[in-house]
Structures are given as structure tokens and as C-alpha cells.
TrEMBL record:
Name of the protein in question: Pentacotripeptide-repeat region of PRORP domain-containing protein
NCBIfam families xref list: PPR
Gene3D superfamilies: Tetratricopeptide repeat domain
The keyword Repeat appears for this protein: yes
Keywords: Repeat
Repeat (PPR) residue spans along the chain: 125-159
InterPro entries found in the cross-reference section: PPR_rpt (IPR002885), TPR-like_helical_dom_sf (IPR011990)
Domain of life: Eukaryota
Length: 554
């Protein structure tokens, strides 16, 4: 009996031990599984956090490219392609940011490809399409904008005001009504503004007067366009919607000045209380347009101090363009009266008055004094200084002055013509990235028959700038187009074509102008270039042998 009880006790203890062991093992397994699950969850969170941080950095990079004006189109495209290769465009916001960066560079092709054909096209939303359409608007690519709008509608993406604005800027017609019909979309005013900029001022004035969406900025923009055309009635009608706007009042004053009603412009400006500088300057500009120095001085004395700034004095100085002493008096009084330092625009106005008075020494001293004060010459001031030298008879001194821009380049070329300095004229033309046709014509006029090579270089500069077509080479002729050229420039074009004729049997010169043809013929014959017969009344022909002979002798 005792042995049986002992055996039962041992069995019970063994069973309890096995049960406890099984429970502990189960608990350990559960704990291990929970830890493993927790590790997996932590790993997922870390990966998600990493992706979000990477996405944030990517957005920051695209935003930097969008804002950075120094960023190039190639740099922006490279950033987008790298993001696509790394599969980093994970959210619609990424694609939209990339499209905006491309749009900031005016890359319509790149933005349209990104939203329509790239691997990220499945993440495209309205914002990305709007950015691509903005790029089309900057590039004026109407065809691509129409294609993008068609794609949006096919995908069921409804354009918003931003998308419509980009398409309207690109030249797509008939979208304004659809944009204005958008419900509760604050961006539709952008579509309205884009449409206003494509309308003539009469249409824009009508839209602004009748649209409840138009804001003060839109009214000012349209009123100023009406004012620039001298349309007093439309300017007043547009400005009447914002009677308290000083900029609208200034547009009304400007309209009267541009229409020739200078007295009405001054009276309207003085009727406002108080007078702000923007209004006073509009009236002063009207006085400067007619060169009313006495009237500008009287108006300046009547203005309160709060209505006068540096721009008021600048316009008063331009009204004294033919009164150098009065202009200089205003120049000296500006800084003490306004508290604003003299700038290059005031210096340029003073130099223009001195140039008109042929006071070269005073102009040179004024420029030196401005340089000592750290004020450089802008293009207008440099041109005035060149004219002052040339009009005083010192054309060589005028050529020694620096060329700042197109205005000073024109003035310097005029000095080249006065001094027959063809080499300097060529240097000026070749030093500009985009010379104008008028500048090329003036520079060629500085080249006489002894400087035909210089005239040819001037013509080549025009061809390189895309102003004139490149000579067309056929099987046995070289054709040069001299349309819309002056005779000196056409001579340069012919000489340049003769030098490039190679093995051509003839050089054909298309004139197209019966007034140009006899002048060009006589100039070429004076150079010893014999002309052949042609059945085309608007062309001249130089035989190839004659052309090669001219080049050899040259």
C-alpha cells in the first residue's frame, strides 16, 4: 500500500513537472514571437521613417531647383532622371515638385514627358499637370498644352485654375469661361489674369469691369494698359471700381498725359488728398514728355514733401533736358530734399542734358565724380557721355569710352561713322551678344570701300545672331539673301559670300528691293566686281571665276 502511494506521488510530481515545463516553453515561444514581431514592426517604422526623410530631402531639392534662378535646365533634368532611376518618386507630391522645378526652367518638353510618359506617370495629379501646363505657358507651346489638357480629361483629372492659367498662357483659346465656371476654386482668378494678358486693352477693360473676380492688381494692370494707349475714357471706367487706389489714380493721370492733356493730368493729381508719390510722378512724367521745365519746377514747388521722392526729381530733370543748368540744379537738390542717395538714373539724366548742351568737359567731370562716389554709369548714361564727346567734336574720345549696352553701342557706332573708324565699329558689333539690325546697318555705314572686309565681318555677326539667313549652297551656286539691308551692309554680305563661295560657279544675290539693287550694283562695280546677266529682276549674279578672282586679289 505504501509502495502504491509512493508510486502515485512520484507520478503526480512528474506530471506536474512536465506540465510546468510545457507552460514555460510555450511562454518563451510566445515571448520570442512577440519580440520578433516587435523587431519587424520597428524595422518597418525605421524604413518608413527613412523613406519619409528621403522624400522630404527630395522635395527640398526640387524646391531649391525651382527657386534657384541660376539653376540650369540640364541640372534640373538630371535631378529628375536620378530620382526616377532610384525609384525615389514615391508620392504625387514628389512628381508635382519635379514638374514645378522643370516648369521654373521653362522646360515644357521635360515636364510634359514627366507627367505623361515617364515611369512616374501613375502618381500624377492635378498639381503635376498644372506645373507642366505652366511650363507650356512659359514656352508658348500651345500644341503641347492642348495635348496635356486632353490627357487630363481622358484620365478623369479635372483642371483647376492653375492648369487653365498655364494653358491660356500657352495660347489655347476658349478656356476662360470653363475656368470661371469652376466651383469654389480660388485659383480661377489666375486663369482670369492669364487671359487678360493675352487680350488687347479694350477686351481686357471690358472683362475687368464685368468680372466679380477682378482684384485691384488686375484693375491697375488693365488701367495702365489703357493709359499707355492714351484712352482716358476706358482708363477712368476701369479705375472707377477702385476709387481709393492710388495706383488706379496714377493710371488716370498717366492716361491724360499720354493723350496730350498735360494740364488735366496735373489738375487731377493735385485734386487728390493726400498726394502720394506714385500720383505726383505720373503728373511729372506728363510734364517731362513735352519738356515743360518751367511747369515741372512750378509743380515741384507746390507738392508737399510727402509726395516727393527720387523718381519725382528724375522726371523733373528729364523735363529740363534742354536746360542743362536747371537740370544740374535739380540733380544737386535731390539728395538733400528726399534723403535718398543719387543713383545712376539721375546721373544719366544729368549727362543727357549736358550732352544736349555740348558740354563735354562738364559731362566728363560729372561722370568722374559719380565714379568717386561709387555710382557707375548705366547704358543710358554711358550713351549720353559718348554723345557729349562726339557732339563736342572729340569722336576719338567717344570711342575710348566703355560700351555698356545697346544704347551706348549705338552712340559709339555713330562716333565710328563720324571718325570713319571701321575697325572699332566691328569690335563693338562683335562684342554684343544680340546686335540689332539698326546697329548693324549703322556699323556697316562706317565702312567705306576701303574697308569692305570690316563690312563683311559685320554681316557675319548678323548671321551668327540669327538676324540674316546663312548663304544657301546649291549644286553650283551660292545664294545670299540681302533683303531688308542697307546698301553698305548688303555690300558686306556680298563680299562675305564671295569669300565663302568655294567651287561655286556663281554667287546669286537676292535683293528683292528695286531701290537697293541699283545702289548695290554701283557699289560692287566700284569695287571692281563684274556682274553677270540674270533673268531675275530682284537678283544680281557674280560669276564664280570673278568671285574667286576678287578673293585672290583681296
Amino acid at each position: 500500500m505504501r509502495r502504491a502511494l509512493a508510486h502515485l506521488q512520484r507520478c503526480s510530481i512528474s506530471s506536474s513537472t512536465r506540465h510546468a515545463s510545457s507552460t514555460a516553453e510555450t511562454a518563451l515561444r510566445a515571448a520570442a514571437a512577440q519580440q520578433q514581431q516587435q523587431r519587424r514592426a520597428d524595422a518597418k517604422r525605421r524604413e518608413a521613417s527613412k523613406r519619409w526623410r528621403a522624400g522630404g530631402r527630395l522635395l527640398d531639392e526640387f524646391r531649391r531647383l525651382e527657386r534657384d534662378k541660376a539653376a540650369t535646365r540640364e541640372e534640373t533634368r538630371l535631378a529628375v532622371m536620378v530620382a526616377l532611376k532610384r525609384n525615389a518618386l514615391q508620392r504625387p507630391a514628389h512628381v508635382a515638385a519635379a514638374a514645378r522645378a522643370l516648369a521654373a526652367r521653362g522646360d515644357a518638353a521635360g515636364a510634359a514627358w514627366l507627367v505623361g510618359s515617364s515611369p512616374a506617370r501613375g502618381l500624377v495629379n492635378n498639381a503635376a499637370y498644372a506645373a507642366a501646363l505652366k511650363a507650356c505657358g512659359k514656352a508658348g507651346d500651345r500644341e503641347r498644352a492642348e495635348k496635356l489638357l486632353h490627357e487630363m480629361r481622358e484620365k478623369g483629372v479635372e483642371p483647376d485654375g492653375l492648369a487653365y492659367a498655364g494653358a491660356i498662357r500657352a495660347g489655347v483659346d476658349g478656356l476662360l469661361d470653363a475656368a470661371l465656371d469652376l466651383k469654389e476654386d480660388p485659383t480661377k482668378v489666375l486663369a482670369l489674369r492669364a487671359a487678360l494678358r493675352r487680350m488687347n486693352y479694350e477686351e481686357a477693360a471690358e472683362v475687368v469691369r464685368n468680372s466679380p473676380l477682378a482684384e485691384e492688381a488686375d484693375g491697375v494692370y488693365v488701367a495702365r494698359r489703357c493709359a499707355s494707349a492714351g484712352d482716358v475714357a476706358r482708363t477712368d471706367a476701369v479705375a472707377s471700381s477702385w476709387p481709393s487706389s492710388q495706383r488706379c489714380l496714377a493710371a488716370r493721370v498717366e492716361a491724360r498725359g499720354n493723350s496730350g492733356d498735360v494740364r488735366g493730368a496735373v489738375e487731377l493729381a493735385e485734386a487728390g488728398e493726400p498726394i502720394y508719390p506714385v500720383v505726383a510722378n505720373a503728373a511729372m512724367r506728363a510734364l517731362s514728355l513735352i519738356g515743360d521745365g518751367a511747369g515741372s519746377m512750378a509743380f515741384l514747388r507746390r507738392l508737399p514733401e510727402t509726395a516727393i521722392d527720387r523718381g519725382t526729381y528724375l522726371l523733373a530733370m528729364r523735363a529740363h533736358k534742354c536746360d542743362a543748368d536747371g537740370c544740374l540744379a535739380l540733380f544737386r537738390a535731390c539728395e538733400p530734399a528726399t534723403g535718398e542717395p543719387v543713383d545712376e538714373k539721375l546721373v544719366a539724366a544729368a549727362l543727357e542734358a549736358l550732352a544736349e548742351a555740348r558740354r563735354h568737359d562738364d559731362a566728363a567731370e560729372l561722370a568722374r565724380d559719380a565714379a568717386r562716389r561709387g555710382i557707375g554709369l548705366d547704358d543710358r548714361g554711358a550713351a549720353a557721355l559718348v554723345r557729349a564727346s562726339r557732339r563736342s567734336g572729340d569722336w576719338q574720345g567717344a570711342l575710348d569710352l566703355p560700351v555698356v549696352g545697346p544704347l551706348s553701342a549705338h552712340a559709339a557706332v555713330e562716333a565710328c561713322r563720324a571718325g570713319a573708324d571701321a575697325d572699332r565699329a566691328v569690335q563693338i558689333v562683335e562684342g554684343l551678344e544680340a546686335p540689332s539690325p539698326a546697329l548693324l546697318a549703322d556699323a556697316a555705314a562706317a565702312c567705306d570701300d576701303a574697308h569692305v572686309e570690316a563690312a563683311a565681318r559685320i554681316w557675319r555677326a548678323g548671321v551668327q545672331a540669327g538676324l540674316y539667313p546663312t548663304p544657301a549652297r546649291g549644286d553650283d551656286v551660292l545664294t545670299v539673301d540681302a533683303h531688308a539691308m542697307t546698301a553698305p551692309l548688303a555690300v558686306g554680305a556680298v563680299v562675305g559670300a564671295l569669300q565663302e563661295c568655294g567651287d561655286a560657279q556663281a554667287v546669286v544675290v537676292l535683293t528683292g528691293d528695286e531701290d537697293l539693287k541699283p545702289q548695290l550694283r554701283s557699289r560692287l562695280e566700284a569695287l571692281g566686281i563684274e556682274l553677270g546677266a540674270t533673268a531675275n529682276a530682284g537678283a544680281l549674279v557674280v560669276p564664280g571665276a570673278e568671285a574667286r578672282g576678287f578673293c585672290t586679289s583681296g
